[in-house]
Amino acid sequence: MQTVMKNFNIYKTIEMVLLVLGVCLIGFWQRFDVAAGIGAGLVLQAAFTLALDLFAEARGQDYIASLKGLVT
After folding, report:
1. Residue 14 burial (CB count, 10 A)
2. pTM
3. Domain definitions of the chain by residue range
4. DSSP label at residue 1
5. Under 8 Å between Cβ of 12 and 50
6. pLDDT tens per residue, range 3-27
């Protein structure tokens, strides 16, 4: 479980980079329909998966705390 919790930092970083990339595609290449569409898709996907990972990380922290409570 410790490995999973460490990997959440990597996942969140990648998702935030994709979110910023999507916003940049929409903002800078708005006149190109394909680029704006890809940007919108990136924003939606990255925001959704980032939110899910934040909830999963919180649940993982609760789980680890519960396991530590059982050991002591």
Report:
1. 14
2. 0.84
3. 2-71
4. -
5. yes
6. 999 999 999 999 999 999 999 999 9
